[in-house]
Specification:
CATH topology: Rossmann fold
Order of helices and strands: EHEHHEEHEHEHH
CATH class: Alpha Beta
Radius of gyration: 15 Å
Structural class: alpha/beta
Shape: globular
Strand content: 15-25%
Distance between the termini: 10 Å
Number of domains: 1
Amino acid sequence: MRRIFLSASVPVAGQGDYHQTANPFLIQFAVRELLTVCLGRRLLVWGGHPAITPMVWAVCEDLGIEYAKAVILYQSRLFEDVFPDENARFGNVVFIDAVEGDRAKSLARMRTEMLSGPFDAAVFIGGMDGVIDEYQLFQKMHPNAKVLAVRSPGGAAMKLADQLGQIDDRIDFARLFHEELGIAVTEKRDQVKY
């Protein structure tokens, strides 16, 4: 596996009912563990989210990973006014032009661009309707890729895991990611050819 797509967010009240099952601490913990397992070993691709982008930056810094080689951040210009400060630190952000005045079409455009490259796997953690949308598009574009919906943190990924019959509820996320994504604990970082 060389490229992994991450779809994750922390659900908020007022945007569906996913916040009722979500555990924000476990979502953040799962994302951090995925980053710790993958960074420098696989190219991680994700769509910018204010709850996730700062974590990616922090873990890159903690591990001493050159983020320009380890991650690709996609961002719709629709959200330019609310980009996290960390966006400016990623020199490899792919900005996708918004569809004037249309949030749904802007997100669809960004997601189509983001998922157009080759992927070996996708990981879904927490989230709201966007996680379901990204899963459907990912599955359509990459039907043979590995899909891992992390159930225990709740949110839309829990619903997706149930639909896929992925009932693993463990919170030993590092082991889960090593096993499911085929990344050995001993695999060196920054030795990956993208």
